[in-house]
């Protein structure tokens, strides 16, 4: 069991998972095979698919008969289980599929990954909300998702079944029927069904998005696809299974008000179904059913699935971080907010250059009274706020703060933007930061029509960072003042705290690598067009150095351009930090998805361009979308400060981890105390992978560093769900993508702000 070292005593957790071991009761087995030749496997499937399974590996076709008395179709070959994971995995999938279909012939699953819809009415969350004429047309069903994995348990390579689920929309009317009913499919995205020709209709067809409808001609639709405009029969098309399409159809049938009510009720039910205790109960129940099936083929290959989940993996003992508030390492605290209140920010009196910030404030005139009161509380503190009684001025050791309030009488974009322009252009001194009122309804607009993004683009062009705040938070700032002040200090270029680092090497650099894929659409056959790379650079203590944006290039040129951009940044940092010849330098790359070996080799070539340093490098990838879950079934939950409910049930402590493989770690970053409300649902662990071609592969050090780097985002005093290296890269990427849609915007505008955290 993993543990997190802290000053507080922790109870022992009772960890469970959604990972179920598969036991194979022999070391070797015999399997039929024949030499592979073009078209042979399709021929075999067409003739024998009901009684045999076929799959290809290297230069052979392997054959699995469903029963013992079936004729031999190939020669027997002896295989060792531990040597041929691919063959064994394929056998398990095929035998599992047949066993499942025998037990549940009415269900049509997909094959790999193995998914199937629940048949229970309470797993169709919209069923009881719909009028009777729609109950068979629209569904929002639970889709069970089973994945086969392989890992090491107690020193033995073991196959594992990972059980997960999600809810999926379905609209069971083809576009011909929709059009006949009067529903207009023009401009909507559509899909078709791709069926397996040799499956005898026992495998669910693939739902494939093809494009957007441009116009209708009789019983056909002209669809804009990535291969150009193409005609499809309406009877062969279905609406893409998106929330937006479901909403439009519901509004057409039952009206806007009723549709809104139905969807709100479905959303509430989904919150309840994603309760960790319910998830664990349903996973355990399904595992119990699957464990009772017989898994065996005609050649004697067999296996069993455990009904009990496993957490029997090695784990790391992680230290809870201490926060550092001065360069002499003498002022530390286990709480960032307490340390900040006691010592002031890390860069107080040393590096921070804006000790008397000038702040532009823009709000609607109906909110001006609340804003005036809010600004006073922001400056001097608020007694009702448990963590912000001292105020921005005293807590961050500022000399003064000057507000320039501008009232507008309309939320119209031109009125709002003109008021900002007039204030900026007529004010005697440059503003350091702006506080701008924003509203939830602005999010419904595209960025080029949203005053939030229009004002941000204008201000950033002039070197002014922006803090947005909603009117309800201005009127009730009890729980938002501390985060607002923290973000403002960081946007002014401040460093509230850093993390103590080990002085075991001369220099360590952490590089977060994000990217933006620019493509015309998401239709089948879509080509990846252009790429932009975003890199963030940090010291080992978590101190933000700067971010950099590569040029926009064709996808095939992206890595060459990214590496050129990286080299320029490393040159700058090595000069600024005074790297000396012969010194040990460690560079740790954080990326969102596993890098290909080719990419690793190219970056290795980049490192080779610095022979004057002893460089060790590591490639660490992170995954949020994966099937793994960890539960603490003894965690009864904590009282929520926002409601009378209990939050965090079945949620493991922050820092809980499992080493699935050498270099592969599950790390839980949201514990019970980090869950906001009982409606937040389940938050799974992060998957961390250290690439085996890295020259620095100490997984204990790397995971500990990742754990520490989630404590320094400066967005809130709470830990983040990603290390700051990737969090910042993703925030910059997301915001630049939206700013790029605004006329006159150029990403070069933020280059002078690259040392400031303008994006948090």
What does this entry look like structurally?
By secondary structure, the chain is α+β, with helices and mostly antiparallel strands. It has 3 domains: 22-305, no CATH class; 323-491, Response regulator (Rossmann fold, 3-Layer(aba) Sandwich); 507-622 and 686-753, Nucleotidyltransferase, domain 5, CATH 3.30.420.10. The protein is 27% helix and 28% strand. The strands form 9 sheets. Strands 25, 26, 27, 28, 29, 30, 34, 35 and 36 form a 9-stranded mixed β-sheet that branches. Strand 29 (584-591), helix 15 and strand 30 (614-623) form a beta-alpha-beta unit. Helix 10 packs parallel to helix 11 (451-461). The longest helix is centred in the C-terminal third of the chain and has 20 residues, at 558-577. The chain is globular and about 90 Å long. The model has no long low-confidence stretch (mean pLDDT 90). Pfam families: Piwi (PF02171). This is Protein argonaute. Belongs to the argonaute family. Long pAgo subfamily. InterPro entries: Piwi, RNaseH-like_sf, RNaseH_sf. Residues 432-741 form the Piwi domain.
How many DSSP helices? 17
The description of the largest β-sheet is: 9 strands, mixed
Distance between the termini: 35 Å
Oligomer status: single chain
Task: Pick out its properties.
6-stranded antiparallel β-sheet, 760 residues, 9-stranded mixed β-sheet, 28% strand, Nucleotidyltransferase, domain 5, alpha+beta, single chain, 3 domains, Rossmann fold
Describe the protein's topology.
Blueprint: E1 3-5, E2 15-17, E3 19-23, E4 28-35, H1 40-48, E5 52-57, E6 60-65, E7 75-80, H2 85-103, E8 114-117, E9 138-153, E10 156-171, H3 175-180, E11 189-194, E12 206-217, E13 220-225, E14 228-233, E15 238-239, H4 243-254, H5 256-273, H6 276-291, E16 295-296, E17 302-305, E18 317-319, E19 323-324, E20 332-333, H7 336-343, E21 358-364, H8 368-380, H9 391-395, E22 402-408, H10 413-426, E23 433-438, H11 451-461, E24 465-470, H12 471-475, H13 481-491, E25 507-518, E26 530-539, E27 544-549, E28 553-554, H14 558-577, E29 584-591, H15 597-607, E30 614-623, E31 630-632, E32 638-639, E33 646-647, E34 657-661, E35 664-667, E36 686-690, H16 699-709, H17 724-739
Parallel strand pairs: 1-18, 21-22, 21-23, 23-24, 25-29, 29-30
Antiparallel strand pairs: 2-31, 3-10, 3-17, 4-6, 4-7, 5-6, 8-9, 9-10, 11-12, 11-15, 12-13, 13-14, 16-17, 19-20, 25-26, 26-27, 26-28, 30-36, 32-33, 34-35, 35-36
